[in-house]
Specification:
Blueprint lengths: L7 E6 L1 H5 L8 H15 L4 E6 L7 H6 L4 H24 L5 E5 L8 E2 L2 H9 L3 E5 L9 H11 L4 E6 L5 E2 L11 E2 L1 E3 H6 L7 H9 L4 E5 L5 H6 L6 E4 L2
Parallel strand pairs: 1-2, 1-6, 2-5, 3-4, 3-5, 6-10, 9-11
Antiparallel strand pairs: 7-8, 10-11
Amino acid sequence: MTNVAYKRIVLKLSGEALAGDQKVGINPIIIHSIAAQVKEVVKLGVQVAIVVGGGNLWRGKTGSELGMDRATSDYVGMLGTCMNALALQDGLESIDCPTRVMSAIDMKQVAEPYIRRRAIRHMEKGRVVIFAAGTGNPYFSTDTLAALRAAEIEADAILMGKNNVDGVYNADPRKDPNAKKYEHLTYMQIISEELQVMDPTASTLAMENNIPLLVFSILEDGNIKRIVEGEKVGTMITSK
């Protein structure tokens, strides 16, 4: 393995990141851009797992606010993450990057069931693993899934790819030209200052397991490789 800063990572992508400027649906150009970046780091020997959200297709909270049963609405969102996972798998395998989708909800025709030891074995064999369907439970976000799976597979870091910002700011940089970008934060800071990087459950889980989180722009080619090679990109969040 090439000398890298992180040997096993969880890449967290929002559903919106897959939609690009269109904000809804799946943009094949974005899919192939992300796939190419992932393949770059796999070639370095880095073991990669991906967690993708479903906000480009459905948001459980929004459905619930419109009168839908919250648990049912969340399950619809979980199915949306499966659609995104299959699109990512297709993009990766189209450039000869072996990939397995593992779902927390049983759907054996299109995905393997999530089994921790099998997921680790896939990564050890050089396959990218995409975790779909959230935790399999309503009321839990895909941010929480990323922190949970990162702890389970003993990942060295969580890389959170954003499509509209290149790190964590004290205000929305798209609206406030004086917004300050943070280079380093602690999980307690993002919780206490309500910076909305991850939900409190996910932040607490990552903090307790001492898993660093790096927030960066997924749209800039080569960013994932720069991070795993130890370059300072975006904002780093740590337990201390």
